[in-house]
Design brief:
- Helix content is 72%, strand content 0%.
- It is mostly helical and 303 residues long.
- It has one domain.
- Residues 1-7, 9-14 and 16-36 have low confidence and may be disordered.
């Protein structure tokens, strides 16, 4: 009887230990309430970045280096890749499709297309990588040291690494033809807002992708549609009047057109575009972070 008591006690201890372990794991992913963290909705994402900036920076740099590890040119492929991709698209639009606005020379039109592609390629690559980031890093998701919300952010940053490189290529090209103006200095702000928007969106999509695998396919084909619905190789004036509303509801268009306005057209985007771009960027970032922190515990069992 004594042995039975001790055996039952052992089972109870093991059971309690297992429940505590599960409780601790779920606690690490438990959502904050607005009373525990009142600044969460507005600035929680920025606070998380500031708090974990060192590990975020190191893992992002390590991930970029890992992508090109073993190659002959290493991270120089960031430059070569941008030149090759931009060249391919330029040849396609200029020589094959033979699209060119009447008020632009061929060189100006190529620069116009480059501006749009630099933004859009980073947008599409970051959105795709961020959406599948949690499903592709399940082991890291269960790691309480590395916050789960940093995983999509890191994937977006890695996929966006080519955007500043492309912007630098555009700057050099613009400077070579004596086309640079003060508006070019605002490009980093556009890049920042684009990253904020994509990070906020992928915080939500990456959680959904843990449960609904079809999300990644919707994103993939959605990006293909955006490629043609975004004014990259054509100006908004070339669109039929009845279809111009597409630009208004297309978030990628705001960043693409801002690149084109600031670099190629040497002027500020329209005030309405600036307001909408700023609003959706910071708004999506705040909402995405809020949703991620509130509901990620519900998706823990699918990890």
């Amino acid at each position: 009887m004594n042995l039975g008591f001790r055996s039952q006690r052992h089972v109870d201890i093991v059971r309690c230990g297992e429940e505590k372990r599960r409780s601790d794991q779920h606690a690490s992913f438990a959502p904050y309430s607005r009373f525990d963290h009142p600044e969460l909705f507005g600035f929680g994402g920025f606070q998380t970045i500031a708090k974990h900036r060192t590990i975020l920076y190191r893992t992002t740099v390590a991930e970029i280096r890992n992508i090109y590890a073993g190659s002959l040119f290493g991270t120089l492929w960031l430059i070569f890749g941008q030149i090759i991709m931009l060249g391919i698209y330029a040849v396609t639009y200029v020589l094959i499709f033979k699209i060119r606005p009447v008020d632009m020379t061929i060189f100006e039109y190529i620069l116009y297309v480059f501006c749009g592609l630099t933004s859009f390629l980073a947008f599409s690559g970051a959105l795709t990588a961020g959406t599948t980031s949690l499903a592709s890093n399940r082991s890291v998701l269960l790691n309480t040291v590395f916050p789960a919300e940093l995983i999509p952010m890191r994937s977006v940053l890695v996929a966006s690494a080519g955007m500043p490189v492309g912007a630098l290529i555009l700057l050099v090209t613009d400077f070579s033809i004596g086309h640079v103006t003060w508006t070019t200095a605002l490009i980093p702000l556009v890049m920042l807002m684009q990253i904020l928007f994509v990070v906020g969106l992928t915080w939500v999509l990456s959680l959904l992708a843990l449960v609904f695998r079809d999300i990644q396919y919707f994103v993939y084909y959605g990006i293909m549609m955006l490629m043609f619905l975004t004014p990259i190789a054509y100006t908004p004036q070339m669109m039929p009047e009845g279809l111009k509303f597409i630009i208004t509801v297309n978030p990628a268009a705001y960043y693409v057109m801002s690149f084109q306005y600031l670099i190629m057209l040497d002027q500020l985007p329209p005030a309405g575009m600036i307001y909408w771009m700023t609003g959706i960027s910071f708004g999506m970032f705040a909402v995405g972070y809020f949703i991620c922190r509130r509901v990620k515990g519900s998706f823990y069992d699918y990890a």
